[in-house]
Write a structure and sequence with these properties.
mainly alpha; about 0% strand; disordered C terminus
Length: about 130
């Protein structure tokens, strides 16, 4: 919210209901918050599921978290947004691309990778 403003939930809701979400009220805002956290939970669940098969994801949490955050950003820009009700496609400015990449690498990828490493049961290690 600090980086991208208080309209983030409306933008997320607009991906589902279209541009009219920007004229919506509290219900649309809450829908955006719910969708945003649902997407974040799904992204974390995908990393967790992958980490159960690919041990290097937790063994190298720093690098894998950074790459995962970048991958999440690119999937959102190249797949999800063009298919959403906004039909958002570039061209993107270099500043917005770098800004989105850095934010998702640090705020999404790293917390997910380090949380999975810290809290997921590792069957072979006998620790949490």
């Amino acid at each position: 919210m600090i980086q991208f403003g208080t309209r983030v939930p409306l933008m997320v809701a607009a991906g589902l209901v279209g541009p009219q979400a920007f004229r919506g009220g509290a219900g649309t805002y809450l829908l955006g918050v719910f969708l945003h956290f649902s997407i974040a939970f799904a992204v974390a669940a995908v990393f967790y599921a992958a980490s159960r098969r690919l041990a290097f994801l937790t063994e190298h949490a720093l690098i894998c978290g950074l790459f995962y955050g970048a991958a999440v950003e690119e999937v959102m820009n190249l797949v999800v947004l063009p298919l959403s009700a906004l039909h958002a496609r570039g061209p993107y400015t270099l500043h917005s691309l770098l800004d989105g990449l850095l934010v998702h690498m640090i705020v999404i990828g790293l917390p997910i990778s380090f949380s999975v490493r810290r809290f997921a049961r590792n069957p072979g290690a006998g620790r949490f």
